[in-house]
Amino acid sequence: MSLFVQTNVSSLVAQENFSTAQTKLNKTMEQLSSGYKINSAADDAAGVGIASRLSAQVAAYSSASQNANNAISMTQTADDGASQISDILTRLSQLAVEGSDGTMSASDSANLQQEFAAQVQEISNIASNTTFNGINLLSGAGGVATAFQVGISTGAANKVSVTFGGADATDLVAAGSLAAVSVSTAADAANAITVINTAIQNLSSIRAGFGAGMDALQDTVSNLSSMSTNTSAALSNVQDVDVASATASLAQEQVVSQAGEAILAQANQQPQLAVSLIHGQ
Questions:
Q1: Whole-angstrom distance, CA of residue 172 vs CA of residue 104
Q2: CA nearest 63: which of 152, 161, 148, 160?
Q3: Helix and strand totals (H; E) in the chain
Q4: CATH number of the domain at 69-238, out of 1.10.8.60, 1.20.1330.10, 3.30.420.40, 1.10.10.10?
Q5: pLDDT in tens, 187-218
Q6: What is the chain's Cα-based Rg?
Q7: pTM (2 decimals)?
């Protein structure tokens, strides 16, 4: 065996191995302490890009789900108001049928008209006061759709539209305003029956649109939840550390590091053997 004083090759090799073991040990400890196996771009250049995209998708799914839930609340608010208007229309229909009977006296017709007018006014009040975040949902001309962003991209496939408006006393019947209808006479009441029946049919169509919109939005929320879960799982596979595997690696690397430290200490003593041989001569 060769012994050298100027260059301790064994020590240099031991230092290199010990440094490599320490680097691995420090990296494993960093992963376990952070919970991530990718803590910098140097750990996995491709993985960083994938993790960034998946993380952005998960955040976008969360926002889209929030949008869809807000849209459900908005549509439900509109439908609740429309339900109250439906109840009023049912009462107006009863009053119109009663008023069209020839047995009604002028006084009876006047009483019916008083309640009828109050109920019609209440339709306008409900329509005007049914709002969501300052947006009126029932009054005004109908047919204008509100598009809700419920996807993480652009285009029609990422939106759900619901039509609001058209449910007040003025716009509910296209051929004539409910406010102009009267039950003051039997003839007027008979005409009111036709107008009210049309209003009931139109309101039913409006509420059907609300129901279809809520069904679509609820399906969207379920789908978004599923996609978010699956994307989060994929993100976890890319960036999260496997604690069981990392802990096993940590134990192995600690043993290797301790052994390397011990060998390095012994390698550093080899030049002393050469000195001892010189003194022995």
A1: 28
A2: 152
A3: 6, 4
A4: 1.20.1330.10
A5: 998 999 999 999 999 999 999 999 999 999 99
A6: 40
A7: 0.76
